[in-house]
Amino acid sequence: MGMSDQEHCIQVQRVFHKMMRIVLELLIEAEKKGMEMASSNGLIQDLFPLISCYTAYYPEQCLVACTKYSTCFKCCIKATGLGNLESAEAWTVSWTTSIISEAQNYSEAGKGTPVTKSRQFHTQCILHDIASTIYRPFWTGFPLCNIHQTIIPAILHQLYQGVFKHLVDWCQKALGAGHLDARIRTLPPSYGVRHFKNGISVPSQISGGERKNMAKILLDCLIRVMPKEGILAIAALLDFIYIAQYSAHNPTTLDYLDDALRCFYQNWDYFIKIGVWEDFNIPKFHSLLHYITSTKLFGTTNNYNTELFECHHIDFVKEGWRASNQ
Ligand SMILES: [Zn+2]
User: Which pTM does this prediction carry?
Assistant: First the structure.
């Protein structure tokens, strides 16, 4: 009998953690005792390699951190509280692993078939917003790795393909079918700005670059057709997206980031009032609350932007695939 889709998904997640463990296992000893490595000037130095940053898109972030889908992988806020302006207490590795091992002990102590035990494990994990598929996350045993902290902001996937995508969708609904497209089509061509001659409601998959071009013109097309509250919410979110990409930050610029987010939270009600969205319990929006802490810990977002790896994906994977017999 073949596997169901759900069983297949669980096995894929387990294989992912096992493979990551194999790839990274050697680092555990190196993290504890250090290892000799040659630097660019030829000197041999003692280094202590750490898993410090992990960049991924949302489903993989949940998979890596072993948190339940639709919750936050950094703090223990409940799915129904994701729309609050404050984050909750930060997840720690010891907390996550203790929930997994307690759930495992509980299910093994109970009576029943392997299927029943697996269900018990699932129930216990889900109660605490932990993914119920992984018994041994790949990062256990790394003395200095806090996997929840290592997951860093993703400009492309969180901001442009997440938050901004929602924003465009709401604007289209708020203005009525075709109205936003009509305004976009009538924009005069101008240097450095993409002219969307067919509007932006194209059904095909939209790249991050296209989203960036849309972000440049969206606000202009809403002036005088959207009330002030909506305009403020969109302007604040666009500010957030741009400030988050500054190539240098200081306490003042981080305050700008915080101000932009607060302004958005003060005005986002508009989209709920007009009925284009039900609530803001959306993980990608909630993740914006963690940008300032991550920037303080890991530096500006251009240090770890996924766009770099997306480019490599084209050069190293897609071109090879097209040139081969596929
Ligand atoms: Zn959070």
Answer: 0.87
